[in-house]
Amino acid sequence: MMQRNGLLRKSAVLFFCIFILLVTACDKLPFGYTKIGDIVKNPAAFDGKEIQIRGKVVEVTKLPLIEKKFYNLDDGTGQILVTTEQNIPGMGEKVAVRVRIKSIAIENDKNIALHGKEIKRL
């Protein structure tokens, strides 16, 4: 009986550790990302929403006088401009980010200044 209780306790601790590991690694898992092409095709459905995207950095811009930093992210389905307050990732770097999608105006599903504001780099 004593061995069974010890085994049960060890199993519970192991299960708890695995659960915590999975919960903290959720941002790194290969699912849960929105395709950039879907955002570009239907910007109204994503406007104001917080989503995760990933892709390759294909262009970077830094405007020093107004402290603005931008980079274009391409996932193979489309490109989107991402604004950030962090360091700009390097050209060609693959990044995953949580962003809030914004557009100055959407008229007849056409967007003006569609971009993602970086919340967290994953």
Automatic annotation (TrEMBL):
Superkingdom to which the source organism belongs: Bacteria
PROSITE patterns noted in UniProt: PROKAR_LIPOPROTEIN
UniProt-recorded name of the protein: Nucleic acid binding OB-fold tRNA/helicase-type
Species per Swiss-Prot/TrEMBL record: Candidatus Sulfobium mesophilum
